[in-house]
Amino acid sequence: MEYLSINPSERLFQIHSEVESGDTLTIQKTDWLAASKQLRGVAFKLYMYLASHKDNSPCVLAADNTASQLGFSSPSFWKALSELQGGGYLVPIDGKRFDFYTAPSSGHTQGGKEHV
Predict the structure, then answer these.
(1) pTM for this one?
(2) Staple 39 to which of 44, 51, 92, 116, CB 3.0 to 4.6 Å?
(3) pLDDT, average across residues 81-86
(4) What is the DSSP string of the chain?
C-alpha cells in the first residue's frame, strides 16, 4: 500500500474490488445485495462510498467531512466503521489503515498475514 500522509482525524482505506471501476459505480450485484442485507443504513452508505473507488486505490477519509458529505454524524461514521469491520468488509492494518473489500473478507491477506 502506498503510504500517504494523513491527519490524526483521517483514516486510510485501500480498496479491493473484483470489478474495475471508472466514473461509474461498478460492483458485483451479489456483493452489494449481500451488503444491503447485512449492513444498516449508515454503514451501507459508507460501504457504497468506499466501493465507488477504483480497485487498489487509496482513499483517505476524515470523519467530519465524510459524514457531512454523506448526510450523517461523525459518531455515526465511527459506528459504521465498526460495523463494516465486524462484517468483514474492513480488515485493519493498524489503527489508521484498513483494507476494504466489497465482499466480506475470509482469508484475505495483507503483508503476508492472513485475516479472517
Answers:
(1) 0.75
(2) 44
(3) 95
(4) -------TTEEEEEEE-SS--SSS----HHHHHHHHHHS-HHHHHHHHHHHTSPTT-EEEEEHHHHHHHHTS-HHHHHHHHHHHHHTTSEEESSSSEEEEESS--SSEEETTEEE-
